[in-house]
Amino acid sequence: MAKKESNFVSMVATLSVVALVAAALLGGVYEATKEPIRLADLRKRNEAIEAVVPAFDTVPSDQIVKYGMDGDTLILYPALKNGIVVGTAVETFTNNGFSGEFKLMVGFDNEGAIVDIAVLSHKETPGLGDKMERDKSDFHVQFMGQHPDEFNLAVTKDKGDVDAITASTISSRAYCEAVQRAYEAWKATR
Amino acid sequence: MNQWKNFSKGLLKENAVFVMFLGLCPTLGVTTSAVNGLGMGLATTFVLVMSNLVVALIKNQIPDKVRIPAFIVIIATFVTVVEMVMKAYVPALFDALGLFIPLIVVNCVVLGRAEAFASKNNVVSSIIDGLGMGIGFALALTALGAVREVLGSGSIFGLSFLKGDGMLLFVLPPGAFIALGYLIVLANKLKAKTT
After folding, report:
1. How many distinct structural domains can be found in chain A?
2. ipTM greater than 0.90, yes or no?
3. What are the structural domain ranges in chain B?
4. Which residue of A has its CA nearest to B33?
5. Cα(A186)–Cα(A107) distance, rounded to whole angstroms?
6. Is A18 among the domain residues?
7. Do B84 and A127 touch (CB under 8 A)?
8. Is the pTM value of this prediction over 0.80?
9. Which residues contact B38 (CB under 8 A, 6 or more apart)?
């Protein structure tokens, strides 16, 4: 078959057809993957909640609180066991990571002490800042059971109580900031 | 054309990374571990094969003057498909590669093969060319990722064999250049032997 000539009509027509077919295909794939993507996000969030609060049986969706702070939204998930609140998981963020934003899930008990912390998403340097992930180091362990009123959420370099990750002071500082923000949101919404 | 030769040229003789130095941005960016390199390589392979296939199919319908935009739309479509499918079914890999997946669109390997090969050859040759180039690219990324992971984190494919820290340099960007340099030496040595 001979090559199509490049005139105005053939160029416009060809590009339109190519774009139309591409758009149709993408629309189809988007519809097909929408539900799995939502489920994958939900599963990740639920796993993080389970990791950071005491054993519970439900997180009622109508009791989830959104709390706006510092230009973004923190989400508080109350965890209930037999209808009684046993802890609250707070989805918090910081914009001061080494590579910008990252998100944590911080669990508090009813007195406001930190139960545990999990990382939801981050872009920190592999091998350095990513040690804040639970399965990469024990960085999160020092926060467990501490109450932010008595435990100064700052790295030792800034006269705080947190031992920073070696060579990742910036990531550690941002982590502390995110936890502090979570605590303030938890306190404000009691 | 001999199809085996057509396939195997991408593995070493015309390897996208080691010989043609194409697509170095994702190469250096994602290869902090062997798994990341492999994931990126396979995603690129898929896009390469699909775009080569489609470009070879419709090459005579596309007027010469608009071929580049048309190729880019085709490539971008497949990249977006890969991105959505990955997000849905392998969210962990997507978290690690997320930023680099959209960059496959501008990976010179993909457009380069569409322009230099698929727009001049038939469908079967183009698929085989895409497959060979893609697998060569994946091999190169996995090798680079493995070297950096072993030296930088003391593990391989996520399995740790070293307690404590590795040489951090190799996880950071300078390590990518250093490791790539030595791998290119190795690839050239191999190439000189086989030809």
Report:
1. 1
2. no
3. 2-144
4. A126
5. 10
6. no
7. no
8. no
9. B138, B141, B142, B145
